[in-house]
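Figure 3 (text version): structure tokens given as input.
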């Protein structure tokens, strides 16, 4: 790659470059393999891998680029979960040069606006030249402490007595062992709680994610029947395991299978040399969110999840507001207001 240039990389090049980053923490959601798998959610998403190099330093950013319907404009967004750039240095001069080159590339490609979900573990909004806002608090478990369970809330330590007395069984395996079964289990559970269709990922998504080699499946089984009581999909990167998707049955809820599964996954991640188990936050920004309450019992550590956005072409963006006036009026808080990102 030429020095001091912003370049779009082929998938293989992007994987190689990503894996050369010598960072202690390199979450799997920033891996090109995950970005490519995530694009199977929607045929409109084009995974795009960009890198800037100067004087031996590198900045890399992967996004989905999408055509705006009925126009010659495009937008860009992070994959589902988290994104944002990786960099070998946070020197302000380098970050500024990378940002300027990035904006120039985006304008050349007619990308009008982007929306970015930064990764809380990395705090990789540093050096971002657009708007950055706090979104919500999220939970992260420190796996380096001697006794992980000592950091659990008393209510969780009490809850875990039930599955342990009941002899529930935890099993962990690569997702490619049964991607379709997990997909069916997950979608059935999401359907039972009336989840938005946006979150009902298809078999192609799980198959491609399995092929990436990044995904592990944690399963909690009934000790007698062997039936799944709870299952969770984890993404393993360097130093950090991410809690990605999960589902449980009614019997599993009664037996605290999800709590048992997360506890066992934390133990497993530590045995694999991970230093953090990232659990994420709630289903909304409320500090009283029920999912945040559940996750919060596993750790007192809180991080701030931030999002960012930038308009690369103000005139074209104003044109999108006029073209999709009803969407703009309905969702003025969304930088990409005309589709769900």
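Below: residues designed for each position.
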């Amino acid at each position: 790659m030429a020095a001091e240039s912003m370049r779009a990389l082929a998938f293989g090049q992007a994987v190689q470059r990503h894996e050369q980053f010598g960072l202690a923490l390199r979450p799997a959601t920033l891996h090109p393999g995950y970005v490519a798998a995530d694009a199977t959610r929607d045929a409109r998403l084009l995974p795009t891998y960009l890198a800037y190099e100067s004087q031996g330093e590198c900045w890399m950013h992967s996004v989905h680029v999408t055509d705006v319907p009925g126009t010659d404009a495009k937008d860009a967004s992070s994959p589902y979960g988290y994104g944002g750039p990786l960099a070998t240095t946070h020197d302000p001069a380098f970050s500024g040069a990378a940002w300027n080159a990035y904006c120039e590339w985006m304008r050349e490609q007619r990308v009008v606006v982007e929306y970015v979900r930064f990764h809380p573990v990395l705090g990789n909004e540093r050096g971002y030249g657009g708007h950055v806002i706090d979104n919500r608090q999220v939970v992260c478990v420190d796996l380096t402490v001697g006794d992980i369970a000592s950091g659990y809330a008393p209510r969780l330590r009490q809850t875990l007595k039930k599955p342990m007395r009941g002899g529930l069984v935890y099993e962990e395996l690569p997702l490619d062992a049964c991607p379709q079964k997990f997909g069916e289990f997950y979608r059935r559970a999401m359907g039972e709680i009336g989840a938005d269709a946006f979150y009902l990922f298809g078999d192609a998504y799980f198959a491609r994610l399995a092929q990436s080699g990044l995904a592990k499946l944690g399963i909690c089984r009934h000790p007698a029947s062997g039936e799944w009581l709870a299952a969770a999909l984890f993404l393993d990167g360097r130093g950090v395991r991410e809690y990605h998707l999960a589902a449980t049955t009614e019997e599993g809820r009664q037996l605290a299978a999800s709590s048992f599964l997360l506890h066992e996954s934390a133990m497993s991640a530590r045995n694999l040399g991970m230093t953090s188990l990232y659990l994420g936050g709630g289903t909304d920004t409320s500090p009283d969110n029920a999912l945040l309450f559940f996750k919060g019992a596993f750790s007192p550590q809180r991080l701030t999840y931030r999002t960012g956005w930038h308009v690369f072409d103000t005139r074209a963006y104003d044109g999108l507001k006029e073209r999709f006036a009803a969407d703009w009026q309905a969702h003025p808080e969304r930088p990409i207001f005309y589709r769900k990102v």
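The first strand starts at residue 5 and ends at 9.
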